[in-house]
Design a protein that fits this description.
The complex is a heterohexamer, with three copies of chain A and three copies of chain D. Chain A is α+β, with helices and mostly antiparallel strands. In chain A, 26% of the residues lie in helices and 34% in strands. Chain A has one domain: Ribosomal Protein S5, domain 2. In chain A, helix 2 (106-121) crosses helix 3 (154-168) and helix 3 (154-168) packs parallel to helix 5. Chain A is elongated. Chain D has a single domain, classed as Ribosomal Protein S5, domain 2 (2-Layer Sandwich), CATH 3.30.230. Chain D has helices at residues 94-107, 134-148, 175-180, 207-236, and strands spanning 27-31, 39-45, 48-58, 72-79, 120-129, 158-165, 168-171, 183-190, 195-205. In chain D, the strands form two sheets. In chain D, strands 1-2-3-5-4 form a five-stranded mixed sheet. A four-stranded antiparallel sheet of chain D has the order 7-6-8-9. Classes of the chains: A alpha+beta, D alpha+beta. Chains in contact: A-D, A-F, B-D, B-E, C-E, C-F. The interface between A and D is large, with 38 and 49 residues. Strand 13 (238-244) of chain A pairs antiparallel with strand 9 (195-205) of chain D, so a sheet runs across the interface.
Amino acid sequence: MSVTPFRLPVVASLRKEAIEELLARGLRIDGVRDPFTPRNVRVELGVVEKAEGSALVKLGNTQVMAGVKMDVGAPFRDTPDQGVLTVHAEFVPLASPLFEPGPPDENAIELARVVDRSLREVGAVDLGQLVIRPGDKVWVVWIDLYILDHDGNLFDASMLAAMAALLDARMPYYEEIETGDVIVDHGVKTEEKLPIRHRVVTVTVAKIGRNLAVDPNFEEESVSDVRLVYALDESGRIVGIQKSGEGALKREEVLRALEMAKRAAPVYFKALEEALTPAGPGASG
Amino acid sequence: MSVTPFRLPVVASLRKEAIEELLARGLRIDGVRDPFTPRNVRVELGVVEKAEGSALVKLGNTQVMAGVKMDVGAPFRDTPDQGVLTVHAEFVPLASPLFEPGPPDENAIELARVVDRSLREVGAVDLGQLVIRPGDKVWVVWIDLYILDHDGNLFDASMLAAMAALLDARMPYYEEIETGDVIVDHGVKTEEKLPIRHRVVTVTVAKIGRNLAVDPNFEEESVSDVRLVYALDESGRIVGIQKSGEGALKREEVLRALEMAKRAAPVYFKALEEALTPAGPGASG
Amino acid sequence: MSVTPFRLPVVASLRKEAIEELLARGLRIDGVRDPFTPRNVRVELGVVEKAEGSALVKLGNTQVMAGVKMDVGAPFRDTPDQGVLTVHAEFVPLASPLFEPGPPDENAIELARVVDRSLREVGAVDLGQLVIRPGDKVWVVWIDLYILDHDGNLFDASMLAAMAALLDARMPYYEEIETGDVIVDHGVKTEEKLPIRHRVVTVTVAKIGRNLAVDPNFEEESVSDVRLVYALDESGRIVGIQKSGEGALKREEVLRALEMAKRAAPVYFKALEEALTPAGPGASG
Amino acid sequence: MKVEGVKLIREDGLRHDGRRPEDLRPIRMEVGVLSNADGSALVEFGRTRVLAAVYGPREPPQKFMLLPDRAILRVRYHMAPFSTSDRKSPAPSRREIELSKVIREALEPIVLTKQFPRTAIDVFIEVLQADGGTRTTGVTAASLALADAGIPMKALVGGVAVGKVEGVLVLDIDEVEDSMGEADMPVAGAPDLGLITLLQLNGVMTEEEFQKALDMAWDAIRRIVDMEKEVLRWKYNVGGDSK
Amino acid sequence: MKVEGVKLIREDGLRHDGRRPEDLRPIRMEVGVLSNADGSALVEFGRTRVLAAVYGPREPPQKFMLLPDRAILRVRYHMAPFSTSDRKSPAPSRREIELSKVIREALEPIVLTKQFPRTAIDVFIEVLQADGGTRTTGVTAASLALADAGIPMKALVGGVAVGKVEGVLVLDIDEVEDSMGEADMPVAGAPDLGLITLLQLNGVMTEEEFQKALDMAWDAIRRIVDMEKEVLRWKYNVGGDSK
Amino acid sequence: MKVEGVKLIREDGLRHDGRRPEDLRPIRMEVGVLSNADGSALVEFGRTRVLAAVYGPREPPQKFMLLPDRAILRVRYHMAPFSTSDRKSPAPSRREIELSKVIREALEPIVLTKQFPRTAIDVFIEVLQADGGTRTTGVTAASLALADAGIPMKALVGGVAVGKVEGVLVLDIDEVEDSMGEADMPVAGAPDLGLITLLQLNGVMTEEEFQKALDMAWDAIRRIVDMEKEVLRWKYNVGGDSK
C-alpha cells in the first residue's frame, strides 16, 4: 500500500519562497547555477576491488555507490537465450535522517525499477552475449545501488553510478568442469568487459512552483511538487520516463522539461567519459 | 498467536435483541427468510477467461470470486502418484472495512483450510488422474478464493465458488518436449475437464442467542456466539466439520444444526447445477 | 539493528546491593553456593523418542531441551566433503515473561551461533564422516535448542543440552534406491552413533559489580554488567569465547574468569557423563 | 507466453485484433458494484478487468501517519492470483509496490484532501484479469470509485497506454502488443484541468514519436473521462436527461 | 513416512498398538512444571507430549488490542522442530495458525474473562512430541495450566480425537491411525457444563457414524476431565483426601 | 573461494602478503565524509573498507523503546551486497544480527549515554568491502564517527583481530588467513580506560596462546586508538600543532 508521505522534511516557507523567486529569475538557491545546469558531478571507478565493477558518484553532496556482481545462473523461462540483469537499490540509513533500516520501500523500489528499465528497454547491455549454455546457464548481472548520502536527485546519481559500474566491470574467470557445472572464481578478474551497447543517463527535472529546474538538490526536491525523469541515450533518444511525486504537469511543461533534459544530459555523459579516460588531471573537492 | 478479536463490528443491543426475537419466532432480520433458508444465491461461471476455471458467487450481498490455475510441478514426496491441490484465500481490503492489506490472517487461513479439507478428504478431485509422470511431474491445481464483498457467511460462498470454478475448469494445452520438460500454454484451453468425482458444499449454521439459523448475514454473524460449518457431499455424507467462533454448543444443537444443514444443502447444489446448465433463463438482480 | 535493551527486569536496588555484598564475601544470593560453583545440574537423555537425539538440561530452575534431527541434503558448495551442522535456538514464550512469540531475536541468534561455533571450530562432530556421496549428498544435522524455563545462564544450559543430544543421537535407517536418491526412515533408528570427536561445554562467568561469579541465575544476570562465555573441551583447550552484555572487562578479569571457567567445567562434564552411564541411581529434585 | 510469428501490424494496417492504431478497445464501466465499500467501480478495457473500491475519509488503525492539514491517500494496486497467465503470488511484487505509488501520485493532484484533515482515504484496486493497461484502467476505476464514494475532486481522471509496435504508435495496447512491442507509455490525467498526473515510458521513442504518443493518449483520455461522466450521470441521474 | 501394509484393525479386532477401539492411550498429567510461568502443565497421551504455560492476567506490549469489558485470550499452538518425523520449520505454519485459533475458541467459553478487563491472558502450547491428537492434548494441557495459574474458569475442558480406520470408529487415534485412516474428529468440551467447545472433522462420516463418534469422544472427555481434577486435587490438596 | 595450496606462513616466517606476524595492514582513517550524518568516518584496514555514520541524540520513530535515565544505542552492522566475493543478500543475515549486538555492546561502555535521557544515538556501519576484520574495523569507524558527531565518550575505542595460522599467532588477519586459519579472535577496547569491550574467539587456542593473542591485540589497539586521536586532532585541530 502506498501512503501519502507523512514524515516529510520541513522547509521554512520563507526558504520555499526564496527558492521559487530565485528560480523565476533563473537562479538557484545554491547560488552557483542556473535552472539548466546540474551540480558538480564526479564519477570514480573501481572503488570496490572485490566487485566485478564499481563506481562512486558524487553529484553535489549526493553520493551513490554502485557495485556489479556476476554469477552463473539459470535464464528466465521466457528468455532462455539471454543473460539476466537485476537492479537493486538500498537506501541505507546512514545516508539520511529520513531513512530507517529495513527492506526497500516504495521509493527504493521505484528507483531500482526505473534504472532497470532505462538499461533494459534500449538494450544497454547485450544480454544475448551473456549466455553460457542456452536455456540452462547464463550470466546473472547484479547491479546494487547504495545510497550513501542523500542530498537530492537520487535518480540521476544512481543511473550514472549504475552505468559507470557496468562500464568498469570485468568478467570474472570461469571454467566449465566435467560435470557440466561452471565454476566462477570471483578472485580473478579477466580483461573481458561487459557487452555494453548504449550509454544511458537520466536527467531529472523538478517543477517548483511554476518553474522547472534540472538536478534538484534535497531542499529543492522537498519544495517541488513533481519530478519528471527522462532517460536518454547518447543519441538523444528517450529510453524511459517516470513522473514521480504528488503533483501534476501540463503538456507544455512535459515538453519543456524534455528540452532541459536533453540540454543537461551531456554533462553526465562527460563525467562518465572523464572517469573512463583517466588521462585527465582528476578534479577534486 | 491467536488473539480474541478486538476490532469487532458494533451491533446496537436493540438490533441484537430484534435479531434474536425474530429468530425465536422463526423469522430473520432481512424480513424474507426463515432460519432454514439461505439467502438468494447465484453462481456465474467463466468470469475470468484467462484462468483455467473461474466463478463468481453472490450469496445475498456477499461476493466471492474463485479462480483455478493449473501448472506442471513436482508431486509431494509422500504422494508421488497424485496431483497437487492447493487452496488459498485472500480477504482483500476492498471487501470490508474490517480487512486490512497484508498476508492472510487466521480467518483467511482457516477458511482456505476448511475448503481444502472438504474437497480433499472426500476426494472431490481425482488427484490420481492428474499425474503426468509419477514421482516427477504432476498437475498442480491452485484454487484462489477472492473475497470481494463481505456480508457474512464467507464459508458457504467460498466453498461454492471453489466447487464451481473446479467444474468450470478446462485443462490447458500442454506438450512434452524432447528434453522431458512439459510446456504448458495457458493461452490455449482444451476441452478436457478436471476429474471431479464429488460435488461438495458447506452449510454454515449460526447460533444466535438460543436459536440456530443457516447462512447468517454479516449482522447475524456479528451477534452470533458460534458457527458450525458442515461440509456435505451430494449423497448427504458429512465430509468435514468446523466449529468456528468464541462460543460453545450443546450436543443437541450440534445434531440439530446437522439436520438444518442437510435441509439447506440442496439450495446450494441447485445453484451450482443451474450455473452448469446454461439452458435456463438466467436470474438477474 | 541492535538496540539497548529497554524492557529489562527490574531488580530492587536493595536486592542488587545484597547480591554484590554477598559475592564480595564469597557467597551467592541463593544461599547454597560460592562464586565458583554452578547450580545443580541434571541432564536427561532421550526425552523425545521421535528425534534422532534429545536431551533436557535442568540447571537450577533453567530448563533447556535440545533435539537432534537428521536428514539427507546437499553439502555447502565450499565443503563438498563434509556434512552440515546447523544450530537453531527458539526462546519460546512459555519460558519467560520477557519472551514474545516471533522469529529469533538477537539473543536467540547469538546463543545459537555461539553454540554452533563452539562445536564447529574444534570439530566436535566429525563432519567428514557424514558424507554419503561427496559433493552431492551428505547428512544434515539439525540441533534445535528450545528454552523452556529461563532462570539465567542460557548459554551453559543450551551448550550442555546440545552436546548431550548429539551424544544421545542414533542415525536413522536409510537406503539408497536405484534412482540414486536416498530414502530416510525416521521411524527406525539404527544403533549407529554420531561421530563425536570432542565434548565441549561452555562456562559463563558474570561480572557483578566488582566480582565474578560462574553460572549466574536470572537475578544475578539482571544485575550483572557483562558475561564472559568460555567454551572449553575436555582437555581444557579454549574452543570459543563470547563477551556478552553492555559492560566491559579488564585484562585481569578476563584471565581470572578463564581460571574460574576451567575450575567449573568439570561439573558440567560430570553431569554429561552421568547421563550417559545410566548405572547411577539418578539424582532427583 | 511468447507467441512466435504473430504479426502485430497486418498488411492492411490494422492491428492483430482488427483495431486501427488509434482505436480503443471496447470499454465497460460500472459504478456501485460492491455493498460494503463507500464507493466502487468495475472498469474493463477489452479483457482487462479492474475493480476499485474506496473507503473513507476514515481513521486508519495507524494514526501516526495522519496529517494535520489534509487527508492522506492510501492506495493499493494488487493483482488477483488468477488474473495472469501464470498464477501470480498474492504477496505484493516489486512491480505492484511501484504501481501503487505511481497510481497514488496520479490521484493526489485531483482529490480535495484539504477538506478532510487527520483522515485517510483508501483506494483499493484489484486487477481481476490482466490483458495490458492495468495501471491506467486502475486509475480510471479509482476515479469512478472516488466519485461514487462522494469524495470531492477537482476533476475526474482517466488513463490509457500508448504503445509502439513494429514502428507504429498504437492506442490502448493489450498484453501481446505490450510484451512484443517496442514501447509502452501509460498516461493518465485530468482533461478538465489540462493536467497530466501519470506518465511513464517503458521503451524507446524519438522526441517526435513521444509528442505524437502524448497527443494520442491525451485525446483518448478525454474520451475516457467523458465516458466516466456519462456513467456517473446515468447512475446519479445528474442533469436528469442522460440516455 | 507412509508405512505400507500395516493392518490398522487386526483380526482380533484390536488396533495396531493392541488397544480396543474404545481405549485411550496411557495418559500422564503434571502441573506446575515450569518456574517462570504463572501456571503450567505437561500432558502426555501415549507418545504425544505437550507442554502448556499460562501468563496473566497481564498487560501485553501492544495495548491497542485490549478490551474494556473483558480480558483477551492470546493463544499460541506451536510445534518444536524436533517433535515430528521430518524436522518442522519453527516459523508458524498455516496449520499452526489455524489450530491456535481453534484452541483459543475452545478455551474462550470457559475462562471468566469478564473478571479481568483490559488485560491479556496468554496461553502458550508447545508440542514437544507429536504422535496424533496434539490439538486436543493441547486443550487439555491448557485447561490444567489455566487452573494452575489460578485463572477463574466456569469448568475444566478436555479433548480427544475419534478416528475412523478401516471402517471402525476408534478413540484417541495416534499418528499412524490418523494418516492412514478415513477420518479424524477432534472434540473438546466441558462436561460439567455439557458444552462442546471444539469440533472438527477431517474425513468422511455418515450421520450415524458422526453421532456415535461424538458420543465416544464425549464419554472419553468426561474421563479426561476427571483425571485433570484428580491431578489438581493432588497438587493443591483440595478436599484433602485424594490419593 | 578456497584457495588450495596457499602457504599462509612462508619459509622466511612472513605471511602470505609479506607482513610479519605482528604487523598491521596499511590503515586509513577519514572523518566527516558524509554531509547528512551528524558524524561519519571511513576506515580501511588493507582492503577492508568500512563506513560508519552517527545520527543523534535524536527521537526515534518508535518512542516506546526510550529509556528515562539514558540514551539508547541503536547499532546496525550491515554489508553491502557487493562487498563480498559472492553477492551478499541485502537482508540482514544471522551473522549481521549477532555482530550488530556485539558491536553495540562494544560501544555501550564508552558512550556517556546518561547525558541524553529519552533519546537514541544511532550508529550505522556499512561494510563496503570485506577482507577480514570487518567487525573490529567497524568498531574503530564507529568510534571516530561518534567523536565526529560530538557525542561525549569516556574514551575512544579501537579494534583488531588476532588469528592463528599454521600454529602462529598473527595480527590483523585478512580474509584468506581467517578462512584457512585455526582461530580468529576479534578484540576491541578502550586503552585509556584499560577496558576490553569486545572479545570473541572463533577457533581453538591454548591458555598460553590466548594470553599472548590478547596482548598482541591490546598492543595494536593502543596504536589504532592513537591513530584515531591523530586523525581527530588533524581534523579539529585540537592542540593546534599536529602535522
